Amino acid sequence: MTEIEIVGSASSGREARLQRAILGLAENPPGAEEAKRRPARPGFAENLVFEFDEAYTAYVESFETLPSEEQLLALQAVDTHVSRMVRAKDAELWTERARREEAPWAQVRELAAHVLRVFEWRAP
User: Fold this and answer.
1) According to the model, what pLDDT value does residue 6 have?
2) Tally of domains within the chain
3) Which domain holds residue 98?
4) SS (H, E, C) 34-90
5) pTM for this structure?
6) pLDDT > 60? residue 54
7) pLDDT tens digits for range 57-88
8) Mean local confidence (pLDDT), 6-32
9) Is residue 124 in some structural domain?
10) Could you tell me if residue 7 is inside a domain?
11) Could you tell me if residue 31 is inside a domain?
12) Which of 15, 51, 93, 123 has its CA 20 to 30 A from that of 9?
């Protein structure tokens, strides 16, 4: 899913919104060369996390279907990790370079990929 698809996709239910947010977090960022040719919008990394937070909150406040324990734990792991990143208040963590190269973002992608597996969600 590209930056444009994440931002431009219309919400079709809480679970669908959460799935799109997780897909965005799981996606590998463009490589350094691609980023030079087509830089991301300023604030894109923050928007990924914000969209996840909003979608996750809406999802857990009003379950459409009750997730399994494994699914809920996987979502909580993503939420806990991105919350730690936000609390760190490290501006460098929110750059495109950081999304490509820093361990916290690699872990976000890994945790998000786990959510995709346990929910059996596939990229569109």
Assistant:
1) 40
2) 1
3) 3-119
4) HHHHCCCCCCHHHHHHHHHHHHHHHHHHCCCCCCCHHHHHHHHHHHHHHHHHHHCCC
5) 0.83
6) yes
7) 999 998 767 899 999 999 999 999 999 999 99
8) 78
9) no
10) yes
11) yes
12) 93
Higher pLDDT, 104 or 40: 104
Would you say 29 and 109 are in contact if contact means Cβ atoms under 8 Å apart? no
| Average pLDDT for 112-121 | 96
Distance, CA of 26 to CA of 105 (rounded, Å) = 9
Instruction: Please state, in angstroms and rounded to a whole number, the distance separating the CA atoms of residues 102 and 98.
Output: 5
The answer to whether 119 touches 19, Cβ cutoff 8 Å, is yes
| Under 8 Å between Cβ of 116 and 22 | yes
Q: Which two tokens stand for residue 17?
A: 């919104």
Q: Examine residue 45 and state whether it is found in any structural domain, yes or no.
A: yes
11-40 as b/e: b if 16+ CB within 10 A: eeebbbbbbbbbbbbbbebbeeeeeeeeeb
Report the distance separating Cα 114 and Cα 58, nearest Å: 20
Reported as a pLDDT band with limits 50, 70 and 90, residue 31 is: confident
CA-nearest of 96, 85, 75, 83 to 28 is 96
